[in-house]
C-alpha cells in the first residue's frame, strides 16, 4: 500500500495517462461532473477514434478531419492536458515519471527533460498494440494498424504500389505487366517495397496479404477492396488487386458467432476477397510471406502485408515492476478496475484485464469502464467501498464498406428491436444493411457527443455525413 502523504507532492487529484477511447472519455466525464483537478497525459497532441483507422488506411478517411486536439478539449471542459510519455510508476511516492523529449538538432524544438507528476489517484489507460508474435520480419516488412501514423503508411504504400503496378503495366512488353515485389529493390522498413522494386515481370495482380481474421483485418480487407480503383492511378485494365486474409486457426473470425461468421465470409467472398484458414505465417520478407504447412513451407508474393494478429498491452506494462500484469501485457485489475494491491491506481481498456471475467479489447469496453470509473473514483476518495464493473455487451458490429454492415446486437437494444419485430427478445439479434450501419456509427456518435457536447457534436456528425455523401471519399495525399 502507498504510504506517502498525498497532499504533499500531488500535481493533480486524478492523473489519467492515455487519452484514447477510455481515458479521454473519463477525463471529460469527471470534468463535466465538476471535478476541477484532473490532469490528462498523452504522448500525442490529438485523439483519433481508432475504430475508423481502417478507413484512413484505405485512403477513404481523413485523419486531419477526425483528429480532436487534447488542448482544445481540456479548455472546453476544464481539465488540464500535458503531452508526455509514461516511463515509470512509483506507487510508494504516488508519482509517475514522464520520459524526456529530445530536442531537435536544428533547434526547431527544445529538449524537454524527464518530469515527475504526483497524483492522489492514477488511472492507466494506455491502450494496446498488435504483437509480432516473434515472427521474423514482421516489424521490418509488414504494416501494423495501431495508430493514425500506421494507417497513413498503409494508405501510402497501397497507393504507391498500385501506381508502380500501373506504370509497370504501361511499360511492359505486350503480355507482360505488373510488379514483382519479390524481385526486390532497396527496401526501407515497411514502406516502399513495391515502388522500389518496380521491375517488369509477367503480369500478376497486386497482392495484399492481411494476416489475422479478426475485426481489424476483415474490415480493412473490405475497405481496401473498395478503394482499389481510386488511388494515385486507376486500376490498370486487365490487372487486378488480389486481397487475401490468412488465418492461423481453423476458424474464420474466431471471436464471433457461427451465423455472423458465415454472413461476413459470404460477403467478402462475393467481393473476391480470399480467405485461407490454417495458414501460419512463419516469416515476412520484402515482397513475400512464408507460410508453414506441416513440415514444409511455401513462399508467396505479397506486395503489401498488414499484420493484424491479435492485441496485447504496450511494452511499458512489463517494465512497471510495481504493478502486476499478465502474459498479454495487461495490468491485472480487480472487478472494480483497481490494480492489485494499490488502492489509488486503476487501469481500464485494452491495457487492463480482470482475471475473473476477461473482456475483449474493444472501444465499447473501454468506454463503459470510463463511465464506471467516473463514478467510482470520487466514491473511493470518500472512503466508500469498491463497486464491481459490469459490462453490458451491446453486440458486435462490422462495417464492410460497399459490402454493407453486419452484426449482432445484444442486451436491451436487441430486446427492444426483437419485441418490435414480434420476436421474444433476450437473444442476440442479427442486423444488416442501413440499420447495422447506423448502429455501427452509433458508438462513434456517442463518443463525439460526449467529447464535443451536443452543439459541436451535432455539427461534427452533420459534417461527417456530408463528407461521406458528397465525396470525394479518397483522401488526397
Ligand atoms: C483498426 C481498429 C479497428 C477497431 N474497431 C473497433 C470497433 O469497430 N469497435 C470497437 O468497439 N472497438 C474497435 N477497436 C478497438 C478499440 O479501438 C480499442 O479497444 C479502444 O480504442 C481501446 O481504448 P483504450 O482507451 O484502452 O486505448 P486507446 O484508445 O488505444 O488509447 C490509448 C491512448 O494511450 C496513449 N498512450 C499509450 N502509451 C502511452 C504512454 N506510454 N504514455 C502516454 N500515453 C500513452 C495513446 O497515445 C492513446 O491515445 C478497433 C481497433 C483498431 C486498431
From TrEMBL:
Domain of life: Bacteria
InterPro entries to which the protein is assigned, alphabetical: FAD/NAD-bd_sf, FAD/NAD-binding_dom, NADH-Q_oxidoreductase
Region: Disordered, residue numbers: 176-203
Pfam family, one: Pyr_redox_2
Record key words, sorted: FAD, Flavoprotein, Oxidoreductase
Domain FAD/NAD(P)-binding positions: 13-370
UniProt keyword Lipoprotein present: no
Names of the cofactor(s): FAD
Family note: Belongs to the NADH dehydrogenase family.
Record's protein name: FAD-dependent oxidoreductase
Native species: Cobetia amphilecti
